[in-house]
């Protein structure tokens, strides 16, 4: 006769486990309905049901939330985003600091900004980056990352190697891609990245 599963003393009939199984199945159905297709076809045998339920709740929230433009969310939340040409340099720098704080508060973090002035960075955010749709921006879980050089164009790669690549990475890249126009290594003109908000380490 097979061993009966261990049940907690406060739930001797396993009703909590049955309820969780029902909720998990309902979450899977809701995700399929929102996504328009089967997103998950199974689970590992050793998956903790509590972990699975929490994971599926996050997936449903993410799928329901969908893609949004960060600039739309910020304006909806009452954050003023004036065009860069309407701001003098001190006002623009103050607005950039405010914007970076607001983005971090919504779990969006910036990277590779030290080659840009405050005006260049704010203009890039205002005109381009914050108008691109992001999945999950503004949700209370997970992090979004926005790398100024994340486009992987040749210009981005040159700037990455010029200002951010250490010698070992530059040497590896040059060996892997001998035709790449490796620039001389230079110190970035600005010192902003180390002061940017960072996501909290996982607990």
Please, could you describe this protein's structure?
- With 203 residues, this protein is mostly helical.
- The chain has 2 domains: 15-38 and 45-65; 69-195, no CATH class.
- It contains 7 helices and 4 strands.
- It has helices spanning 15-35, 49-65, 70-76, 89-105, 118-127, 154-164, 167-176, and strands at residues 67-68, 108-111, 134-135, 144-147.
- A two-stranded antiparallel ribbon has the order 1-3. A two-stranded parallel sheet has the order 2-4.
- The radius of gyration is 23 Å and the shape is extended.
- The mean pLDDT is 81.
List keywords for this structure.
mainly alpha; 203 residues; 2 domains; extended
How is this fold's topology laid out?
Elements: H1 15-35, H2 49-65, E1 67-68, H3 70-76, H4 89-105, E2 108-111, H5 118-127, E3 134-135, E4 144-147, H6 154-164, H7 167-176
Parallel strand pairs: 2-4
Antiparallel strand pairs: 1-3
